[in-house]
């Protein structure tokens, strides 16, 4: 049984539609090449990364007897599958602007294949739990500081808001599966330390390679802007430190922090209108997604 009785928001499978034609610049993020390469590289990691999140949770799905958690797993798989699909679309737009996300994707895919040959099922699930915590706290930061998205093309801003909202909705699923069937907190903490090092170094490597492939040399103003964006007083990484460390507490559960108001705020915003699940275009979007491995796997 899941260890929590906390109230959690519904995990909804939404089908979204974005038009990424408004991405018209390599340095789409406020003209800053370092922040732009960071999020292009991160977007490149989503299709292979989220595929692994899905697969690692699926390894345990059959052993879950709690019907509520079974429902959550199904919704989690649906959400991550559609995230991958949408990030594949935006990655094409990034590639057209000069970032080679396909190469980053391939590097990560190879790395995951290597990991999967050497790791136990429990370790794969533990890594997913750790990555889900990192994406959840990054999502919380973005949704609480939406002014950082002000200079972005609308399609990208909408994609970010939707993805971050759904990361919060499903933030406890992998954790609850782990807690139910593995329940080894020390193993989780060890993996978090390793995942943090892996994620930080990999992102740095992908970013450096992205700049080399794009023949883009950051200038001093890019460096200053990126430093303040990530490490300044209001910076993303500076502000993720405390929620990150909460993972190491003995009573940690993702819903100890109830940030469901961020989901409600998005639902009330114009960006929720990019959902097409309940409109006549739904069939078209689903049809156009039908060749996508992740989405097909998710359904
Ligand atoms: Fe996701
Ligand atoms: Fe996720």
- Ligand kinds: fe (ii) ion
Quickly give the structural class: mainly alpha
Query: How many helices does DSSP assign?
Result: 12
Overall average residue pLDDT? 91
- Summarize the amount of helix as a percent range: 55-70%
Q: Count the beta strands.
A: 0
The helix/strand series, from N terminus to C terminus, equals HHHHHHHHHHHH
* Uncertain ranges: 279-299
The total number of structural domains is 1
Proportion in β-strands: under 5%
Cα distance spanning the termini: 25 Å
Q: Label the overall shape.
A: globular
Please outline the major beta sheet: none
Explain the overall architecture:
With 299 residues, this protein is an all-alpha fold. Helix 1 packs parallel to helix 3 (101-118), helix 1 (33-61) crosses helix 4 (121-144) and helix 4 (121-144) runs antiparallel to helix 6. The longest helix is centred in the N-terminal third of the chain and has 30 residues, at 67-96. The chain has one domain. It has helices at residues 33-61, 67-96, 101-118, 121-144, 154-169, 173-181, 185-213, 220-231, 236-245, 260-267, 282-288, 293-298. The two termini are 25 Å apart. The chain is built from twelve helices and no strands. One fe (ii) ion binds at residues 53, 80, 132, 135, 167, 170. Residues 50, 80, 83, 163, 167 line the site of one fe (ii) ion (FE2).
